[in-house]
TrEMBL record:
One of its GO terms (biological process) is proteolysis. Pfam families: PmbA_TldD_2nd, PmbA_TldD_3rd. GO terms for cellular component: cytosol. Residues 197-296 form the Metalloprotease TldD/E central domain. Residues 171-191 are annotated as: Disordered. Residues 1-23 form the signal peptide. Residues 343-454 form the Metalloprotease TldD/E C-terminal domain. Keywords: Signal. The keyword Signal applies. Belongs to the peptidase U62 family. Transmembrane segments: none annotated. This is Peptidase U62 modulator of DNA gyrase. GO terms for molecular function: metallopeptidase activity.
Length: 619
């Protein structure tokens, strides 16, 4: 886990007042819609040369007697421009624009065969050979070089501590002589040309749309809290390392979330949300469409308010639209990474790491109906004659390795996993999927634009008939359709106290996916009934072998994937109601999915006494 190094004092008078000004993050007004963003004015060629020269100096001079020197030093500079706005009941509740630059150093000691990485020190998980600092917007090459010197020094000292602990642990456990190196070699990459992207939408434009859509909830009964939030950001990244890599990439995302909460008649907390992400505002629904979506969300939340709680259930489950994407996201995608389990993880942490498919390349892992491809080079997809943006695309991963299209599963057989520069059973080299840090200071191979395709796809009516036929064969009176999962990074609210949230965290099986938000019973005569409290039990990877039918038309679901567990996201809550603009830009493209048999339990968490007095009526 990266840590922010407190370096302002060390930089001293050299930074002067500019450090506080940069921390405030004030930036010029964004260009009007349709214009392209200009090149960075904060991270210039002179700044990059200064950082590169400091890496070279550290490689030649950074030594502690009796300790191994660094064999690899990597620096990443990240410049972020972001506009955020939140509105509730037609009024703006929060807005800001930010512009800042982060410099991060990653130091590895030892050698490629055995280094400090991928090891967790008990009770010191943050000691991982990395350090990070907010670089002043007005930084000169001299300031940048001094900042690079300080973060490199801090990262090196951490790397030594981590290396000693890893070496001592291996000696104590007899684990020396493992057959895989700690890190793979990578040819240097030079790709320094700027990547043009559209300029940010003006904050005032986002604010007007948010106000209009949020005003809908003034007239919706049984709503406790509601908001409409926009984010729009540009993320520029530069990678420089001692192997000779100097590469640049830029990502551009805009997103909107409509969220509201209510309380069922038995006191259970209810939430519902709508989200869309794209490259720019033009990829998102129009103002009028968002107003209609807000009305529909209010209608569905009121229906949930009176809906019955589901009974415990074992039987066929059909996942439609966002529900299918959520099933892929929460129960399959976490296992597609090929990064080996970090040494030193606790048993509970190891369960949450994923990796259930490690060592299974060449074996059948899903239904033969399914094939999966992860393609970070894709920027869009055409479905039904319409083009949909995909936000998971990138040119370089977080280790500066070029993105690669990977065929993961072919007709149910695992062909490859998503790898980084940390060798594993899945592969000795990276296929460009280092996307998020994990415990031990390494990057986890992660899905980006994940395409799920199926053979013999059925039309919606045919798929429903197949669902009911399966329920009938199993002697059931109804089947279940799941259409949306909860996303606590979006929907978490302060409705529950910290004590209640901690109780929820400690008593909930962390192998279960998030609760569902929209689900229906489908009776054998075709009638549908909205139900609430639908919680899938822990869904092992082998459940994917029992997909018995797929839909014909795929759905696209863009989202920002958090590295935190969904229960941790509930604990943290949603800051100021804003759209999360941190996380891994991701997309899932999948048809509807019919599973032969899954276990469902009733989720009654979040129950509390209802308000003593009815809500005030809108004026």
């Amino acid at each position: 886990m990266n840590r922010i190094v407190s370096l302002v004092c060390a930089l001293g008078l050299m930074l002067g007042a500019s450090a506080s000004a940069s921390a405030a993050g004030d930036k010029p007004a964004a260009a009007k819609g349709g214009e392209m963003a200009g090149p960075s004015t904060a991270v210039t060629a002179e700044i990059l040369d200064a950082v590169a020269s400091e890496i070279e100096r550290a490689m030649g001079q950074m030594r502690i007697p009796g300790e191994p020197p660094p064999y690899l030093i990597s620096h990443k500079l990240t410049e972020i421009e972001v506009n955020d706005v939140v509105a509730s009941l037609g009024a703006t509740t929060w807005k800001r624009d930010r512009h800042f630059v982060l410099i991060e150093a990653r130091v590895q000691v030892g050698d490629y065969a055995l280094d400090n990485s991928n090891f967790v020190i008990a009770n010191a998980e943050g000691t991982d050979g990395t350090a990070q600092y907010v670089l002043p917007m007005e930084a000169t090459p001299r300031i940048a070089r001094r900042a690079a010197w300080l973060v490199t020094d801090a990262a090196y000292k951490e790397a030594l501590e981590q290396f000693r602990a890893k070496r001592d642990t291996r000696r104590a456990t007899g684990a020396f002589g493992q057959d895989r190196p700690s890190y793979s070699k990578q040819p240097p990459l030079v790709r320094e040309e700027s990547v043009p992207v559209p300029a940010l939408e003006p904050l005032s434009r986002l604010e007007e749309i948010a106000q209009a859509a949020s005003a809908v909830f003034r007239d919706v009964a049984n709503i406790r809290d509601s908001r409409v939030a926009f984010t729009s950001f540009i993320e520029r990244r530069w990678y420089i390392n001692s192997e000779g890599t100097s590469a640049h990439d830029t990502r551009r995302v805009s997103g909107v979330i409509i969220s509201a909460t209510s309380q069922a008649e038995d006191g259970q907390e209810l939430s519902h949300y709508f989200s869309r992400y794209g490259h720019t505002l033009t990829d998102l629904p129009s103002r009028d469409t968002l107003v209609r979506e807000a009305r529909e969300l209010g209608r569905e939340l009121n229906a949930l308010h009176a809906a019955p709680v589901v009974s415990n259930y074992t039987g066929p489950v059909l996942f439609e639209g966002a529900g299918a994407a959520g099933m892929v996201r929460h129960t399959l995608a976490p296992h597609l990474g090929g990064t080996p389990l970090p040494e030193g993880l606790s048993a509970d942490e190891a369960k949450q790491f994923g990796g259930a498919l490690a060592g299974r390349v060449g074996l059948r892992v899903t239904s033969p109906l399914l094939s999966l491809v992860d393609d970070p080079t894709a920027q869009e997809v055409k479905i039904g004659g319409k083009t949909r943006a995909l936000i998971g695309g990138y040119a370089l991963d977080d280790e500066g390795v070029p993105a690669q299209r990977v065929e993961v599963i072919d007709d149910g057989t695992l062909e490859a996993l998503l790898t980084t520069r940390t060798p594993s059973k899945a592969g000795e080299t990276s296929n460009g999927h280092a996307r998020r840090t994990t415990a031990g200071g390494v990057f986890h191979g992660s899905a980006t634009n994940l395409f799920v395709t199926g053979k013999r796809g059925l039309a919606p009516a045919q798929l429903k008939r197949r669902l009911l036929a399966e329920a009938r064969d199993q002697g059931l009176d109804y089947a279940l359709v799941i259409r949306r999962f909860d996303d606590p990074a979006v929907s978490a609210t302060p409705e529950l106290t910290m004590r209640e949230l901690l109780h929820l965290y400690t008593t909930t099986d962390k192998q279960m996916p998030p609760a569902t938000m929209i689900a229906h019973r489908v009776y054998l005569d075709g009638r549908e009934e909205l139900v609430r409290g639908v919680q899938l039990r822990s869904t092992p990877i082998r459940a994917w072998r029992d997909v018995i039918a797929v839909g014909r038309a795929p759905s696209v679901f863009n989202f920002l994937a958090s590295a935190d567990h969904h229960l941790v996201q509930r604990l943290n809550g949603v800051v100021n109601g804003e759209v999360p603009s941190s996380g891994i830009e991701s997309a899932v493209i999948t048809p509807d999915l019919l599973f032969k048999e899954l276990d469902v339990v009733a989720n009654l968490s979040g129950q509390r006494e209802p308000a003593l007095v009815p809500p005030p009526k809108a004026q």
